[in-house]
């Protein structure tokens, strides 16, 4: 019986295993190999066969210790991932809980509104916030504040370091991430038997009590998924950041995360250093793996997947 179950499970998982191998494992192996070469400007004929050991990692760690720009990038990565992760997970959960207790038409309208940032093209969405936070009087935020008399001269929001730049990139990416959590948590809440909520209502429980005692405990699997996925996603995201930095809306040092540094080093203007970028990408992958493992441990994933007592085969 167990052998048959294993065969069935392998059959259904095989497409995903193949995709993971093609689009993650093989690129990761190539990245690790390139990190041990002096690859520059994509000159594969000259550099790909020239293995230099841990030279790129030594360069990278030396920069971590002595380069102020790299120190700013690492700090930005920690602040950006940490704060945006909290906003995305808790914001998505609160939105899902909020729309759970309103009528379906209003709930659908609210969800659609929060989905607009995710449905918008990255360039269009970033351009909206570029003009909103622009540091001159053409910026929407500055224009509103000046008309209200709150400020007399425009404020360069994204160039105010470090918290001005951090606030802009966290805000812009947070709106996109919240919608993802909202979708997952809404799906989870819709699977909870309505009888539990009705019985709690009959007993006089408030919406907060129902949320705290019934709804939130029953979404632990989805909470674990959203937290882990968003952590890994934020650690490797860079498209919105790239545009905001390239358009000079935010400070280059405090608007650049480690993921964006990898992209700029490998594909940016001037000399492109793929060896150094690959080493940084490997470090980023290790951080992601360790962070995901710690998340699963803290949220007791192993305990969650244990078979309950009394199951009948």
Question: Would you give an account of this structure?
Answer:
- The chain has 313 residues and is mostly helical.
- It contains 15 helices and no strands.
- It has helices spanning 2-34, 44-47, 55-66, 68-100, 104-119, 122-132, 140-147, 163-190, 194-202, 207-215, 220-236, 239-246, 258-267, 274-298, 301-304.
- The longest helix is centred in the first third of the chain and has 33 residues, at 2-34.
- Number of DSSP E strands: 0
Helix content: over 70%
Indicate the low-confidence ranges by residue numbers: none
| Cα Rg | 24 Å
Short key terms for the protein model shown above:
313 residues; mainly alpha; 0% strand; flat
Summed up, what is this model?
The protein is mainly α and 313 residues long. The protein has 15 helices and no strands.
What's the arrangement of secondary structure elements?
Blueprint: H1 2-34, H2 44-47, H3 55-66, H4 68-100, H5 104-119, H6 122-132, H7 140-147, H8 163-190, H9 194-202, H10 207-215, H11 220-236, H12 239-246, H13 258-267, H14 274-298, H15 301-304
């Amino acid at each position: 019986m167990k052998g048959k179950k294993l065969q069935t499970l392998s059959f259904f998982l095989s497409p995903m295993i193949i995709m993971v191998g093609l689009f993650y494992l093989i690129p990761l192996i190539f990245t690790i190999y390139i990190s041990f070469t002096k690859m520059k400007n994509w000159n594969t004929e000259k550099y790909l066969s020239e293995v230099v050991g841990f030279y790129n990692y030594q360069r990278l760690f030396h920069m971590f210790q002595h380069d102020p720009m790299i120190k700013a990038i690492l700090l930005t990565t920690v602040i950006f991932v940490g704060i945006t992760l909290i906003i995305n997970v808790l914001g998505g959960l609160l939105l899902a809980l909020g729309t759970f207790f309103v009528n379906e038409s209003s709930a659908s309208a609210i969800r659609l509104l929060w989905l607009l940032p995710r449905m918008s093209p990255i360039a269009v969405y970033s351009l909206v916030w570029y003009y909103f936070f622009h540091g001159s009087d053409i910026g929407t935020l500055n224009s509103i504040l000046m008309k209200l008399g709150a400020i007399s001269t425009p404020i360069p929001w994204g160039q105010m370091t470090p918290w001005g730049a951090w606030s802009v990139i966290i805000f812009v990416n947070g709106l996109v991430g919240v919608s993802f959590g909202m979708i997952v948590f809404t799906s989870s809440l819709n699977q909870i038997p309505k009888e539990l909520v009705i019985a709690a209502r009959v007993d006089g429980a408030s919406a907060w009590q129902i949320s705290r005692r019934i709804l939130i405990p029953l979404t632990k699997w989805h909470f674990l998924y959203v937290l882990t996925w968003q952590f890994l996603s934020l650690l490797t995201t860079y498209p919105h950041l790239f545009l905001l930095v390239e358009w000079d809306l935010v400070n280059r040092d405090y608007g650049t995360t480690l993921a964006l540094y990898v992209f700029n080093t490998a594909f940016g203007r001037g000399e492109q250093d793929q060896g150094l970028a690959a080493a940084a990408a490997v470090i980023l992958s290790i951080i992601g793996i360790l962070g995901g493992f710690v998340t699963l441990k803290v949220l007791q994933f192993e305990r969650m997947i244990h078979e309950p007592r009394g199951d009948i085969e």
